[in-house]
Amino acid sequence: MPGLYFEEFTVGQVFDHAIRRTVTEMDNVLFSALTHNPAQIHLDEEYCKHHSEFGQRILNSAWTLAFMAGASVGDTTLGTTVGNLGFQDVRFPKPVFHGDTLHVRTTVVALRESKSRPDAGIATFLHEAFNQRDELVGVCNRAALMKKKPKA
Predict the structure, then answer these.
(1) Range list of H helices, the chain
(2) What span, in angstroms and rounded, lies between the C-alpha atoms of 10 and 110?
(3) Model-level pTM?
(4) Domains of the chain
């Protein structure tokens, strides 16, 4: 199983995820359509040329958030999580444009035993997304309820 159990994490542990993704126009348009987000800054190139400080469309930031968490799954939680408990301190310091290539780093920032589930613990991850120039484009904290190792 690729994911780690609660006991296998340590505070300060860093994962530089191998998954990289070049963002396409299709990613942005499809994600915006699927989430019913009609914002011109995501969909209308002509509007952005004349009315946006960026001069072009920017990626839907909810896609960036989903990518930050998704890129981390194989190394951290695949098959060993009960589920996400929430995202906090979500920020997007720089925009993402079509053609940018993103990569993600995850740091374990906190671990605690579950008060209600003796078979699980809570891991808090700091996810950071960077573009091809290593500029920070997204950051968040994610709490996940993690399984403990099965008793032998």
Answers:
(1) 25-34, 40-43, 45-51, 61-76
(2) 8
(3) 0.94
(4) 6-147 (3.10.129.10)
